[in-house]
Amino acid sequence: MFGLLRPKSFGNVFKSVTRILPQLRTYVSPAINQLLQLQQTEICADPPSRGLVLGVYADEDDKTDAGVLTPSAWRYNVQKTAGRLLEVLRMSGPMPKRGEARILFAVEPEKVPYYSAVAVVGLGKECLGYNSYEVLDEQKEAIRRSVARACMELAFLDTAKIEIENCGHAESAAEGAALGIWAYQELKEIKRRIMVPAIDLYTHKDELCDIEGWRIGLQKAAAQNLTRQLQEMPSNLLTPTAFAQTVVEVLCKSGVNVEVKVEGWAESQSMHAFLAVGKASCEPPIFLELSYYGTSAEERPIVLVGQGITYDCGGLCLKRLQELVHMRGDMTGAAVVVAACRAIAGLRLPVNIRGLIPLCENVMGCNSFRPGDVTKAMNGKSIEVQGTDHEDVLVLADALLYAQNFCPKFIVDIGTTSGMMRNALDEAACGIFTNSEILWQQIKHASMHTGDRVWRFPLWNFYTKQVTAGAASDVQNYGEGRGGRPCKAAAFLREFVPCGQWMHIDATNVMVTNGKAFEYIRKGMAGRPTRTLIEFIAQTICKDTAPKLNIKK
């Protein structure tokens, strides 16, 4: 029979294939038979309008593993496809690995199937869970990675709507789907924009579905996408004033109060360190104060401080061109605080939040602050400017001092204070500096669930001595020595936290992603660590999940 496949001309090839096609159909399985019919009659079919994402468990190290469908996938396989889904999946090769998706078409027997494309995603082994070595819940991360990959591939096929099963954890599935399909394309022509399908949870009448988990996942993903949107906006469009206007529009609809304080107010508060950074720009500095009351007004708030340098060229200490390209994202801390406040309000968490965001530009001009200048913070401490490219700590210093006015439970500041974090951690995790073991354990626990990990760095007196060793001022914004820049930046900030629990998050290294480290985040601004911050705050107010320290006296 196979000798017929050697004709001498194209016409003979066509005749031979036509002649042997009925013979092939007697040897192949019903699933392949259906695919042959599809190729003959529906080659020019319309692109899929509705897609479905289902999961399969399999050992990635064993290529012969036949795979086990999730409960939702098994019901669909039996009730909707009469077993064809699993049959075609197994015939297509080894089971998909974590972070992979396999698209199958027309697996339903109906002539016009309800789901024109079904993506089966790899979830790894069924026994995946918390990996103490990786400090990561591998099951949840596998769900995010695989679901995101499936949604991105279905979106590439112009699928209008995608339904996703919970894959064992609805919150993670929602995060992966919403993060994966998002793209910043507001400035593109409509015809050049990629398809962004609608997503929904796939449910079955015989199965309990975690609608609440799905909703929480969408809220967290929407918050991270808001951070990404603010980070991606060009700095000529998102000036300090434009940032403030955007925050008012976004948060006031969510029940978060926004106070916009101008340059004169900052002068009245003696925020000379903050004002020194922004005085070279024609854009006036602005200070935002966000307020959310989720519980009694007498309850002490958690204060979040976000660095808001809407563009940082380094001042007179000009950055290199390769660094300038991404410096529109130097307001990552501010964007994270805004997005976290919106999510906290949307989730109605029973907590009071104060968000403090100093906004300005660090550019060159006739009024630029210079290396060697000395300025004073709100508490009267003198600060020697050793480098204008280390302005971030100056901006945060006054905001940390102002935070003391609210008698906070604790203070968390987020900034991009040292590019050296990239050398230490790459994109793997944010850097954490804190004077509280409890806060460290809580945010570590939160990051394990979100997959957006953190890692603790030392906050030793060794670094404090390096930033307070100057003869002409109380502190220096760079300090002595050549190394340890992230630790010295944190030591500098600690000088402006007179009391109470405090944590500094350095997000410099996770500001931008190459699109390969995490399948659910496209290349560009990453929006991290928004979800971890939200989860951290949620866990600090939940006594059942917050980790407790057992210290023997």
From TrEMBL:
Record InterPro entries: Leucine_aapep/pepB, Macro_dom-like, Peptidase_M17_C, Peptidase_M17_N
Keyword Ion transport found: no
Cofactor: Zn(2+); Mn(2+)
Reaction it catalyzes: S-benzyl-L-cysteinylglycine + H2O = S-benzyl-L-cysteine + glycine; L-cysteinylglycine + H2O = L-cysteine + glycine; Release of N-terminal proline from a peptide; an S-substituted L-cysteinylglycine + H2O = an S-substituted L-cysteine + glycine
Keywords, sorted A to Z: Acetylation, Aminopeptidase, Cytoplasm, Hydrolase, Magnesium, Manganese, Metal-binding, Phosphoprotein, Protease, Zinc
GO biological process: proteolysis
Localization annotation: Cytoplasm
Example of a GO cellular component annotation carried by this entry: cytoplasm
Domain annotation Peptidase M17 leucyl aminopeptidase N-terminal: ranges: 53-189
Molecular function terms from GO: manganese ion binding; metalloaminopeptidase activity
Entry EC number(s): 3.4.11.1, 3.4.11.5, 3.4.13.23
Domain Cytosol aminopeptidase: 225-534
Family listed: Belongs to the peptidase M17 family.
PANTHER family referenced in this protein's UniProt entry, alphabetically: CYTOSOL AMINOPEPTIDASE, LEUCINE AMINOPEPTIDASE-RELATED
Function: Cytosolic metallopeptidase that catalyzes the removal of unsubstituted N-terminal hydrophobic amino acids from various peptides. The presence of Zn(2+) ions is essential for the peptidase activity, and the association with other cofactors can modulate the substrate spectificity of the enzyme. For instance, in the presence of Mn(2+), it displays a specific Cys-Gly hydrolyzing activity of Cys-Gly-S-conjugates. Involved in the metabolism of glutathione and in the degradation of glutathione S-conjugates, which may play a role in the control of the cell redox status.
Record's protein name: Cytosol aminopeptidase
Lineage, opening ranks: Eukaryota, Metazoa, Ecdysozoa, Arthropoda, Hexapoda
